[in-house]
Amino acid sequence: MSHNTFGHLFRVTTWGESHGPALGCVVDGCPPGIRFTLDEIQAYMDKRKPGQSRFVTQRREDDIVKVLSGVMLSEDGTVMTTTGTPISMLIENTDQRSKDYGDIARRYRPGHADYAYDLKYGIRDYRGGGRSSARETAARVAAGALARKVIPGVTIRAALVQIGKHRINRANWNWAEVDKNPFFCPDAEMVPVWEDYLDTIRKAGSSIGAVIEVVAENVPAGLGAPIYAKLDQDIASLLMSINAVKGVEIGEGFAAAELSGEDNADEMRMGNDAQPVFLSNHAGGILGGISTGQPITARFAVKPTSSILTERQSIDADGNNVDVRTKGRHDPCVGIRAAPIGEAMVACALADHFLRDRGQTGKTR
Ligand SMILES: Cc1cc2nc3c(=O)[nH]c(=O)nc-3n(C[C@H](O)[C@H](O)[C@H](O)COP(=O)(O)O)c2cc1C
Fold it and tell me: How many angstroms separate the alpha carbon of residue 27 from the centre of ligand 1?
């Protein structure tokens, strides 16, 4: 199962499985001299880790990151400074329960990767899904935390904007609310609605999809390049690489199809400081594949979790018709924990493009 690496200059390789002893990442190409603390990495890991509310999987993992290489530790042991060599980060798996997966060892969960993995590789780690498990995304979040340090001043935040048919009221958007509820929801009024809704879904042993929005602010203008290194192309690719993601939009996305040229045009004027000002941001901060300095906005849709308690028709590895009911600990809505993962992927894309831009133009922006 090759292709475990993404990025060009900020290059991330992830390794490890859901039910192995550990997983992690190697970040190659991180510039030397970047200072960070473990607490800074851990803060993002804590946002993604399982078991934090009844609305996510009850697997218990502390997701403590160990940095194995690529840094010099300060004498007091608190600050790490990158040396420019590969940075290896490790996260132990401490709460595996392989027996939960005995029933699906030879049965394919409809909607999951089981059938496709067996078909292609002839071998499948059924214990938690191996590499198809979103445990792997813990390593991406560690890499993303480091990526943020490569692009200081850039703020990258994600919020859940839709669960099932329940969309937030964008007029109520308040970033301060996002960390106050278990859904990363920016609309305080939607929180009780989602609570009731997800309780019903969860108790029925079912699952539901969601939409997450990622916003990156203070991104320098000039990142990205025509034609095969468009910033939106790379952001979309990395968001699409997240498990269960079925759609990605930048700016207006699919809604742009309903707009007229007049409505969609982001008009410009010169501001008082002799800098251009955009009067709207339908483009989501990217024109011609290059960042304009406006906030970058991306949304991604995740499908409902395929591991559900309701019996569904499928087949097994011997070609028999079977009914599959998935027990074990699963996320009833994977969109919740996908929010910090989306942030991490955007951070990695921006760090990579920041370094590529500096390499080509010599500008530090
Ligand atoms: C944060 C997160 C948590 C997930 N948790 C589960 C889970 O508990 N059970 C499950 O069946 N799928 C879960 N998934 C989705 C599967 O990993 C995904 O559906 C599977 O790898 C197949 O890939 P695909 O959906 O992209 O085709 C999760 C995804 C994310 C992003």
Answer: 24
**Span from the CA of 132 to the centroid of ligand 1 (angstroms):** 7
pLDDT above 70 coverage of the chain, percent = 100
pTM assigned to the model? 0.97
For residue 123, what is the DSSP state?
-
Torsions phi, psi of 155, nearest 5?
-105, 125
How far does the centroid of ligand 1 lie from the alpha carbon of residue 242, in Å?
9
CA distance 140 to 126: 22
336-354 mean pLDDT: 98
Q: Which two tokens stand for residue 325?
A: 């009911």
Q: What is the distance in A from the centroid of ligand 1 to the CA of 243?
A: 5
* Rounded mean pLDDT, 218-241: 97
- Long-range CB pairs of 42-49 (<8 Å, 24+ gap) are 43/145, 44/141, 44/142, 44/144, 44/145, 44/340, 44/343, 44/344, 45/91, 45/138, 45/141, 45/142, 45/145, 47/141, 47/339, 47/340, 48/137, 48/138, 48/141, 48/337, 48/340, 48/341, 49/138
CA angle in degrees (0–180, nearest 5) for 274-277-281: 165
Give the chain's end-to-end CA distance (angstroms, integer).
38
Nearest CA to ligand 1 atom 3: 334
What is the per-residue pLDDT across 8-18, written as a single tens digit (0 to 9) for each?
999 999 999 98
Q: Name the residue at shortest CA distance from atom 25 of ligand 1.
A: 244
Mean pLDDT of all residues in the chain? Answer: 95
Q: Show the ligand 1 pocket: residues with CB < 6 angstroms.
A: 57, 112-113, 132-134, 137, 242-244, 303, 305-307, 330-331, 334, 337-338, 341
Which amino acid does the sequence have at 191? V
Compute, in angstroms, the gap from residue 264 CA to the centroid of ligand 1.
Answer: 35
Helix (H) or strand (E) holding 263: helix 261-264
Residues 141-194 pLDDT 10s: 999 999 999 999 999 999 999 999 999 999 999 999 999 999 999 999 999 999
